[in-house]
Amino acid sequence: MGFQFQFAPVFARSDVLLEGALLTLQLSGIGILFGALLGILLAMLRGLSPPALRWPVDAYVELVRNTPFLVQLLIIFFGLPSIGVRLTAEQAALSAIILNLGAYSTEIVRAGIESVHRSQIEAGLSLAMTRWQVFRYVVIAPAIARVWPALSSQFVLMMLSTSVCSFISVQELSATAANVESDTFRSFEVYITVTLIYLGLALVMRGLLAVLGAVMFPKGSGLGRLRTQASR
Amino acid sequence: MPVVRVEGVHKRFGAVEVLKGIDLTVEGGQVIAIIGRSGSGKSTLLRCINGLEQIQAGRIEVAGHGLDASAKGLRDLRKDVGIVFQSYNLFPHLKVGENIMLAPRVVLGVGKAEARRRAEAALAEVGLAERFEAWPDNLSGGQQQRVAIARSLAMQPKVMLFDEVTSALDPELTGEVLQTMERLALHGMTMLLVTHEMAFARRVATTTVFMHQGRIWEQGPSERIFSAPETPELRQFLGGGLK
Amino acid sequence: MIREFSQSEFLFILASARWTLLLTVLALLLGGVLGFVVAIARASRLAPVRALAAGWIGMIQGIPVLMLLFLSYYGLSLAGFDMPPVFAASVSMAIYASGYLGEIWRGAIQSVAWQQWEASAALAMSRAQQYRYVVLPQAMRIAVPPTVGFIVQLVKNTSIVSIIGVVELARAGNLINNATFQPFKVFGTVALIYFMICWPISLLARRLEGKLNAGRTG
Question: What ipTM did this prediction achieve?
Answer without folding.
Answer: 0.93
